[in-house]
Specification:
Largest sheet of chain A: 2 strands, antiparallel
Largest interface: A-B, 18 and 18 residues
Largest sheet of chain B: 11 strands, antiparallel
Order of helices and strands of chain B: HHEEEEEEHEEEEE
Radius of gyration of chain A: 19 Å
Number of helices of chain A: 4
CATH superfamily of chain B: Lipid/polyisoprenoid-binding, YceI-like
Shape of chain A: elongated
Number of helices of chain B: 3
Strand content of chain B: over 45%
Number of domains of chain B: 1
Number of strands of chain A: 2
Number of strands of chain B: 11
Helix content of chain A: 55-70%
Oligomer: heterodimer
Number of domains of chain A: 1
Strand order of the largest sheet of chain A: 1-2
């Protein structure tokens, strides 16, 4: 007997969704702010906090992907086929960027010669060599991917709001913590 | 007569033989003075591109040695142009007022075969501190490599004072590593 379709995401999925949403938004804002600062203790602190947050996001995203692949999400709410495809494409793109953005940031750190030492105690390996030209190239990729993630996330938020308030299909309740 | 010529020749050669100090010199292109500082746990490696040394050193008579080093602080290389520009500022090296750091030995002691403790005074940014630098000598053909490492405390020399003095931000301890290739030092 097939189980009844789920009406909500699991509580683990909901917790990871909101935790990562907050962490990503904060890291993005700090990243944009810090890159224009002149050299100062604040800048050094923000860069390191940003890197630690990025590695934490990477680890939580791996956990989140593993959970997503092993736990069924609720069924899609009724909508035209093109919107369904667009929603799934948006989700897949975001998942890809959850990994691509922090990995590019990690690579940029290594290429710039300032390897990541997580929380100031755990040195992470460098998977690219320290190289000025490479660092500049990867820096622009890290920024471009982060802005792409911000753009796709805005589309995701706008679509969720439209479903909930315009279509009145109660979509947000699937992801709302109880 | 012959004896007088011989004596004159001996005096002549002694007069014109270069003294020990002139024969012993640093080969800067093969030498390296590098350091590692820690910023919030992240090791940051730097090195100096320009330095010079005056050396009078006979490994058989280490106590008579005289070693003087001068390092051009503006020649620091630290990975990024931004950090190099920062280091030149008054809070850090203040290279405009203190263009050079110097080390002058006061005594040298043998501590084992090919190993010495060089005790001397490091002057950096107007502050002087006594240091004991362990040095290992390795002979390879005509060249002698003197290498070793030692730690200094940056705040002893007011390197990174003011906003940057918090050691949880930039560690107080800075590890200095050197490899000086010398010509004219005979094997110990």
């Amino acid at each position: 007997m097939p189980s009844a379709p789920l009406s909500r995401y699991s509580s683990v999925a909901i917790a990871l969704h909101w935790l990562l949403a907050a962490a990503l938004a904060a890291s993005f804002c700090v990243g944009v702010f810090m890159s224009d600062l002149a050299s100062s203790p604040l800048k050094l602190r923000l860069y390191n906090w940003h890197k630690w947050a990025g590695i934490t996001i990477l680890a939580l995203s791996a956990l989140r992907l593993a959970w997503r692949l092993t736990h069924l999400p609720p069924q899609d709410v009724p909508m035209p086929a093109w919107q369904r495809s667009a929603a799934h494409l948006t989700h897949r793109t975001m998942y890809g960027l959850f990994f691509a953005v922090p990995l590019a940031g990690w690579a940029y750190s290594s290429a710039a010669g300032f390897p990541v030492v997580l929380f100031g105690v755990l040195p992470l390996p460098d998977f690219v060599p320290a190289d000025k030209a490479l660092a500049e190239a990867i820096e622009s990729w890290h920024a471009a991917l982060a802005f792409a993630l911000a753009g796709v996330a805005l589309v995701h938020v706008a679509a969720a709001i439209k479903h909930h308030f315009v279509d009145g299909d109660g979509l947000l309740r699937r992801m709302w913590p109880r | 007569m012959r004896a007088r010529i011989a004596t004159a020749l001996l005096a002549f050669s002694a007069f014109f033989a270069p003294p020990l100090a002139a024969q012993q010199r640093l080969l800067p292109a093969q030498s390296e003075i590098a350091f590692t500082s820690r910023q919030m746990g992240v090791p940051v490696h730097g090195r100096f591109r320009m330095f010079e040394a005056q050396i009078e050193f006979d490994p058989k008579q280490p106590e008579a040695a005289r070693i003087a080093l001068r390092i051009d602080l503006a020649s620091v290389s630290l990975g990024t142009a931004e950090t190099e520009a920062e280091l030149a500022k008054p809070g850090w090296f203040d290279t405009r007022r203190f263009p050079q750091a110097s080390f002058t030995s006061t005594s040298v002691k043998s501590t084992g075969p090919g190993r010495f403790d060089v005790i001397g005074k490091l002057t950096l940014k107007g502050a002087s501190r006594e240091l004991t630098v362990p040095v290992t000598l390795l002979q390879a053909g005509p060249a002698t490599t003197a290498s070793g490492s030692f730690a200094i405390r940056r705040l002893d020399y007011r390197i990174g004072d003011g906003d940057w003095s918090d050691p949880s931000l930039v560690a107080d301890e800075v590890l200095v590593k050197f490899r000086l290739v010398l010509a004219g030092v005979t094997a110990p």
